[in-house]
Amino acid sequence: MTETTALDRAHAAMTAAPDDDGARLRFYERLADSELFMMLTKEAEDGNISPEMFDLADGSFVLLFDREERLAQFAERPVPYVALSGRVVAQMLAGQGIGLGVNLEVAPSSIMIPAEAVSWLHQTLEHTPDQVEAAIVEVSAPVGLPEVLLTALDSKLATAAGLATSAYLVSVQYTGGGQGHLLGFIDTSDAAQSALAKAAGEALTFSGIEAGAMDVGFFSSADAMTEKLDKVGLRFDLPKPEEPKVYQPKIPGSDPENPPKLK
C-alpha cells in the first residue's frame, strides 16, 4: 500500500476547503518543513546543482518529490537528485521566475506551484516576531489564543531539539501599558536564538495569526522571570538532542563463544 505522507494530508485538506486560508497556509508550512528530493540533470559538483526543468507555456518548474520512491516512479530510470528542505528550495528559487512541480503524476499531492507563490513562501518564512525590549511588569496565564496556534507551536518546537530546554507561553504587561503574549525560551545559546525566533514566527504566520500577537524572549533558568513563567505559563518541553552513537567494532577472537572463521 502506498504511504500517505504529511504533504499528502495537508494537500487533501487544502483541496477539500479551497476557501479556507488556514488550510492553504498549513499546506505551505508542510511544504517548507518537508525534505524534498529535487531531480537533477547531472550529479552535483562542488556544491553546485543543475535542476531538471519542466517547461510549460506559463513558466519553468523544478521537479520535487517528498519521497525518493516517488521520484524514481516519475523518472522511470536512474537519475541524479539532491535532498533539500522546502524552505531552502524557496530561498534558492525566490525571484528567479521558477515554480515548483511537486509529486507530479505520482501522488495525490501532485501540484504545480507558480513562481509568484515560491517568492511569497520565501518572504513569509523570513518573518520573525519581535524580541522583548520593554520591561515586563506582570505575567499571567495566556488567554484568547486559538488552538491552531498552540498546536502549531507544539509541532514547531518538537523539531527544535537541543536549542533550548523549554519554552513558556504567557500573557504579559509591559512598562508603559503595552500588553500581549510572550513566548519565553529557557537556557538558549546565542547561536540558537535566531532559529527559535523564526520557528515561533512561522507558527504564527502559518496559523493565520497577526505577527504582532506574540513576542519572544530568552531567559536563563536562574532568572527570577523564569520562576514567574513557570507558575502561570503554558509550558512546552523541547526534545533533548540524541546522544551520539559510538560504533565499537568487535575484534575477531575477542568472544570465546564466537571464534573467528577461517576461509
Question: How would you sum up this structure, described in words?
Answer:
The protein has 263 residues and is of the alpha+beta class. It is built from 8 helices and 11 strands. The strands form 2 sheets. Strands 1, 2, 3, 4, 5 and 6 form a 6-stranded mixed β-sheet that branches. Strands 7, 8, 9, 10 and 11 form a 5-stranded mixed β-sheet that branches. Strand 5 (98-102) and strand 6 form a beta hairpin. Helix 2 (21-33) packs across helix 4.
Helix content: 25-40%
Largest sheet: 6 strands, mixed
Q: If you compute it from the alpha carbons, what radius of gyration comes out, rounded to the nearest whole angstrom?
A: 23 Å
What is the ordering of alpha helices and beta strands?
HHEEEHEHEEHEHEEHEHE
Number of domains: 2
Distance between the termini: 43 Å
Protein name: SseB protein N-terminal domain-containing protein
Region (Disordered): 239-263
Organism: Parasedimentitalea denitrificans
Domain SseB protein N-terminal: 12-120
